[in-house]
Write a structure and sequence with these properties.
Helix 3 packs across helix 4. The chain is globular and about 65 Å long. It is about 30% helix and about 15% strand. The protein starts with about 30 loop residues before the first helix and ends with a helix. Strands 2-1-3-4-8-7-10-9 form an 8-stranded mixed sheet, sandwiched between helices. Strands 5-6 form a two-stranded antiparallel sheet. The chain has one domain: 3-Layer(aba) Sandwich (Rossmann fold). It is α/β, with parallel strands linked by helices. A hairpin with a 5-residue loop joins strand 5 and strand 6. It has 9 helices and 10 strands.
């Protein structure tokens, strides 16, 4: 397939076009995030063959074949280890991983913990719609306590996991929050995340018009605001902004620390080596080894 390019030779939005039709519900926040991702990559001059997009299972994951390029659709909650491994194998390749709040803060929470702890040099976009949308609206660990959902008709009994406070407790190097109804801001956030030295955690708040009837598009539209004149190096202030969502919800780049080396940079055997691991792959005759098992 010939990829459409601009007159200057760079990628365009058409470069990322897929013939497969989107099947998300009308009003789903995935449309906005999907658009922002493509626009960010285009504005950075990154063509489809020069980026890896990794999708977890979920409504957002159904977009894995709705965009052109190298894409991977993984197992529920397991997208981060794959994305990290792909990046470490080829450090020249930008890698973005996408996961929902259900998978990322339940089945895959251990992978999220160690991705932040290890400071893998990848971007992680959390599709945060407060429920398991793909499997018809079950409560996730980020659903509000007491909220009635399909599998909790009397209200979710557990307390809501404080996701942002949890992330900050792990001493991240990049934390941002966006809103699926604000594409220009999401584009700016994603561009900064793609250029970050280590693990970039991007919390994208989004509407689920079919199953989330508490944090609706209008609810988010009325409460989300752009953080201005904020020192993104101030960890304490950033954490306060991220956690305080009772009346207003701060969006934008909340915290960034470029002084911490990424996981790859701290690997002693890889220091001063200019080739990537994929460059070093060679054919090896294992015939002699196999004979030992005959």
């Amino acid at each position: 397939m010939k990829i459409p390019l601009s007159s200057s030779g760079g990628p365009t939005m058409a470069s990322y076009h897929s013939e497969n039709r989107c099947t998300w519900c009308d009003g789903c926040g995935d449309y906005g995030i999907w658009t922002a991702v493509k626009r960010a990559l285009v504005e950075m001059g990154i063509p489809p063959h020069s980026v890896l997009l990794c999708y977890d299972v979920g409504c957002h994951g159904n977009g894995s074949d709705k965009v052109q390029g190298y894409r991977f659709h993984g197992l529920h909650g397991r997208v981060l280890p794959f994305a990290a491994g792909a990046k470490l194998a080829n450090m020249k390749l930008p890698v973005m991983a996408f996961g929902g709040d259900g998978a990322s803060f339940s089945e895959g929470i251990g992978h999220l913990v160690h991705s932040i702890r290890s400071n893998y040099p990848i971007v992680f976009v959390l599709h945060n719609n407060g429920n398991y949308g793909l499997t018809t609206g079950q409560a996730s660990s980020l659903t509000w306590q007491g909220q009635k959902m399909n599998t909790s008709p009397n209200g979710m009994p557990e307390h809501t996991l404080p996701s942002m406070d949890f992330v900050f407790s792990l001493e991240p190097t990049f934390v941002a929050r966006g809103f699926s109804g604000d594409i220009p801001q999401m584009v700016d956030i994603l561009k900064a995340a793609l250029q970050h030295r280590g693990f970039a955690f991007v919390d994208m708040l989004q509407a689920c018009p079919t199953y989330n009837h508490f944090a609706t598009h209008n609810y988010l539209l009325e409460r989300c605001y752009h953080v201005e004149n904020h020192d993104t190096k101030d960890f304490v202030k950033a954490r306060q902004l991220a956690v305080d969502t009772k009346e207003k919800i701060a969006t934008g780049i909340l915290y960034q620390n470029e002084d911490i080396p990424s996981f790859y940079e701290q690997l002693v055997p890889r220091q001063k080596i200019k080739t990537t691991l994929v460059d070093e792959v060679k054919m090896h005759d294992v015939g002699g080894l196999m004979k030992e098992f005959v």
